[in-house]
Every structure is written in structure tokens, then in C-alpha cells.
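Hey L., structure's done. Input below.
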Amino acid sequence: KMSKCDEISVLPNIPPLYFLENVSSGSSCIVGEKDIQKNTFQLLPSELEVLTVTSYMDWGDLAKLSTVHKSWSRLIEDSASKCHPEGKWELALALLNGTHGLLRHPTRAVCYLETLSKEMRHVPAMVGLARCHLTGCGFATKNTDAGVKWLSEAAIAGDPSNCQASLNSAHELACIYERGQYDIEIDVNLAAKWFLYAAERGLPESMAEYALCCELGCGVAQDDGDALGWYVRAAEAGHSDSNFSVGEHFEAAKGVPQSDTDACMWYYRGAMAGDRDSVQALKRLEDIARIVLPPQWGRVLDV
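Output:
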């Protein structure tokens, strides 16, 4: 299924009449003035000229075209100012990474990221700007406070079209606090807070991480029952490794009555999803697995 962003054109958006206005007002060009007036896009209506150019050119092509006539020298900037936010976001990425025919220019990329973040509340741009602050890319120095601020804003932006990006930013922020990345002091309480924030809103990876926090008592009170509940939610949401964790809880009677039967059922789910730990657990409980699992269960031992 095509996402909302996939349906939006990220091609440059040149203002209508751009070439007519700029060629008419230009005073010089690389080739002769008469040649430009006669031959440059003069055989088509101006609106069709723009449509033709934007249908076949990306940002790198526009960068080349901007060198043809001095009045087109701001073609990239003028196009970016009119294009959809997703197009401006692609331009920022191209400048960050040196793709789409553009040279790498992090400083210019940061300018677009700041516009998208501050004026348009574009969640992926907030995350990109946060990472630039955290790493110093496009800035003279790193600014971890600004990086954390923008990740936090991205996490709570609440834009339905970028819900996944918001949840991912909350998870990323939690991981930063958990591991002390970018020279930020480890804070297990803030890590657990952001894992829970994303977990409650449906992110499977955060569900599994928050379950581990509950299991270990890291940033929250230790509670095997809560841990099991979050592992189950994560597993049912598609986090394959959590099937093994649920099985462990049943096998070891952690927050639930001991049951090798239930443990095998969860290990089998994990093994079917490709989890190697679940496969090893089934081998250990093979005698019980032969009784409680479907006849074809043995196939997963060769996963």
C-alpha cells in the first residue's frame, strides 16, 4: 500500500512564468543574448516549460541549469521556496548526503532543515536537525541540548501523517539516554519514560524495551507481571524476539504460574519468526514440544 508521503511529488516546483520572467529580465548569458531569447524555452508556453522541466529534472539537474543564465542562478532556492515540504525535505537530504547530483553541503542543508522544523513542523526534518546538532554536522560545534530538544519536539509533534517518525524519534531519544550516546549522561529514568511514551502509542520496539526495563527494574520499579504484559503486547505487535521473552517468563514462572506447555507455544511462535534463541529453547524442551505443538513443529529446528 502506498503511503501518504509516497503519493506526494518530491520533484522541484518551479514557479509559473519563471523562465519567461527571468530570461526577459536577464542582462547577460553564457551564449549570445539573441540565441537565448530565440532558443531557450521560447517555443512553448511558459507554464508548459515549467511542467516539462520539473517532470524530467531533479535538484542536481536544476543546479546545472542554474549556471546557464545568470538570472537563473537562484533556481534551486526559488524552486525550494515554492515546492511541497516533502520536496524541500528531499533537497535537504540531498545536500546532507551529496546525492541527486548535488555536492554535499551540510550548512545549506541545515538551513532547509531549520525552515522545515520551525515553520512547517515537519517531523522528519526535526529529527534530521536534531542529529545535526548532536553530531555537529552543518554547525561549528555540537549542541546536545538543542539535539535533545528537537528530538523531544519531534516525538510529541502529534502529526498523524508522520506518526511513525514521531514514535521513532521518541525511541531514539530513549536509546540515547539509555546508552549515553553523544556524550549525554546516562539517565535510565528518562530512558524508561520515553520507551513507555512510544510503547503506549504502539511502537513494538519500545514495548520490548520497556518490558526489559520492568523486568530489570531499570528506571521503573521491578515487576515481572508488567514485564510479561509488555512482552506479550510487543510479540503480538510483531516483535519476534519478544516471543522468546514471554516463553522465558512461563518457563521460569516469572510473574505467571510455571508452564512448560505455554513456554513451548511461545518459543514456537518465536522460532517460526526466525528467532534463534527460541529454536534453542525448543530443542531444550523437545520432549514437551512433541506433545503440545503441531506435527510439523520439528521443521523449525532447522531454521
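The CA atoms of residues 97 and 104 lie 6 Å apart. The chain has a mean pLDDT of 84.

-- N.
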